[in-house]
């Protein structure tokens, strides 16, 4: 499945990214390449079981194990918005046996909203594969008078309108800040602990709107319990064709995604990394995998975006976008 983001990364960008990655010396040679892997491999999911990151990580583990000839086990190591598990992988042995199932929080957001970081996401990891993305949406209580994004922004300028996110400094919080900055809106941020925890309050009318991942909002929208006012992707989703995009609602070039990808510690031996990359690419291209990912409510990454160099370039862009959003919003690292 080709995603619209593919066109953002031209061939020369991928070549530059690959050359830069190779020049860092992240891939010293593995002396006994033929022996790898000779024991089980661990995928660290830096969140609790359930949710997109865990679901995608388990799909990858199940598909890559047979290709690598060794079991791949999932280890949920939650804490500090994903930073605990990410730090454990970054500081662990770079031998190809412990990898990170990474996402926005620990890789592109936490460095700017957490005062203490024990790792550098751009220096301490090497990208293996981008598995999927999921756009963010603005979801409204079904009884809210505003039926469109334009109506919502106008309403927020006249009276207080609450908008929940999955937490202070979360990727959906940063998207909300970008919405306000791009539209002149005055949606008032209400942080929750995770995207699912805010749903009862949204349905009950305690909060009026929420910025969340499309996968969380989809069933609420389809059931009529809430309404998606705008999707932060270039085109409407075939899963919710009645939900307009931010772009067609008048917010120029506005896109925002969560992502899930696989990364290894820096200095992972080149031979091990190449085997992991080959297995990951084959697993994601296998018959039925696209459908299994879509069943989670995510968009499988295109073949071009799955490439390690493209994933690395995407990580860098998202990292810089978060830096600018946090600066513009005046969010302090805590």
Keywords summarizing the entry:
334 residues, D-Maltodextrin-Binding Protein, domain 2, 12 helices, alpha/beta, 10-stranded mixed beta sheet, 19% strand, 10 strands, 2 domains
Helix and strand sequence: HEHEHEHEHEHEHEHEEHHEHH
- The CATH architecture designation of the largest domain is 3-Layer(aba) Sandwich
Estimate the helix proportion, in percent. 40-55%
Separate helix tally: 12
What spatial form do the alpha-carbon principal axes imply? globular
General description of the model:
By secondary structure, this protein is α/β, with parallel strands linked by helices. The protein has twelve helices and ten strands. It has helices spanning 11-23, 51-68, 83-91, 104-113, 149-158, 171-183, 199-204, 214-222, 270-285, 289-295, 303-306, 308-329; strands at residues 41-45, 72-76, 98-103, 125-141, 162-165, 188-191, 209-213, 226-231, 257-265, 299-300. Strands 1, 2, 3, 4, 5, 6, 7, 8, 9 and 10 form a ten-stranded mixed beta sheet that branches. Helix 2 (51-68) links the parallel strand 1 (41-45) and strand 2. Helix 1 crosses helix 12. The longest helix is centred in the C-terminal third of the chain and has 22 residues, at 308-329. The chain is globular, with a radius of gyration of 20 Å.
């Amino acid at each position: 499945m080709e995603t619209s983001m593919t066109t953002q990364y031209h061939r020369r960008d991928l070549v530059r990214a690959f050359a830069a990655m190779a020049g860092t010396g992240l891939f010293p040679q593995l002396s006994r390449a033929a022996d790898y892997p000779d024991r089980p491999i661990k995928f660290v999911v830096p969140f609790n079981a359930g949710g997109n990151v865990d679901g995608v990580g388990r799909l990858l583990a199940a598909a890559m194990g047979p290709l690598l000839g060794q079991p791949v086990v999932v280890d949920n190591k939650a804490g500090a918005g994903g930073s605990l598990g990410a730090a454990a992988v970054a500081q662990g042995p770079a031998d190809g046996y412990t990898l990170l199932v990474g996402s926005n929080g620990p890789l592109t957001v936490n460095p700017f909203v957490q005062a203490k970081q024990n790792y550098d996401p751009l220096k301490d990891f090497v990208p293996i594969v981008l598995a999927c993305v999921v756009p963010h949406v603005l979801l409204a209580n079904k009884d809210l008078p505003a039926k469109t994004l334009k109506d919502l922004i106008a309403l927020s300028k006249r009276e207080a309108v609450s908008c929940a996110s999955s937490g202070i400094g979360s990727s959906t919080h940063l998207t909300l800040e970008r919405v306000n900055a791009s539209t002149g809106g005055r949606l008032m941020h209400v942080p929750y602990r995770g995207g699912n925890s805010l749903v009862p309050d949204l349905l009950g009318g305690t909060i009026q709107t929420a910025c969340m991942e499309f996968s969380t909002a989809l069933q609420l929208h389809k059931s009529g319990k809430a309404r998606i006012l705008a999707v932060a992707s270039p085109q409407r989703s075939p899963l919710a064709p009645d939900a307009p995009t931010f772009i067609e609602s008048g917010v120029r070039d506005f896109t925002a995604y969560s992502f899930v990808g696989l990364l290894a510690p820096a200095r992972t031996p080149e031979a091990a990394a190449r085997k992991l990359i080959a297995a990951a690419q084959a697993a994601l291209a296998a018959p039925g995998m696209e459908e299994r990912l879509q069943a989670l409510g995510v968009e499988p990454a295109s073949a071009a975006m799955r490439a390690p160099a493209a994933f690395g370039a995407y990580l860098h862009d998202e990292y810089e976008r978060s830096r600018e959003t946090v600066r513009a919003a005046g969010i302090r690292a805590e």
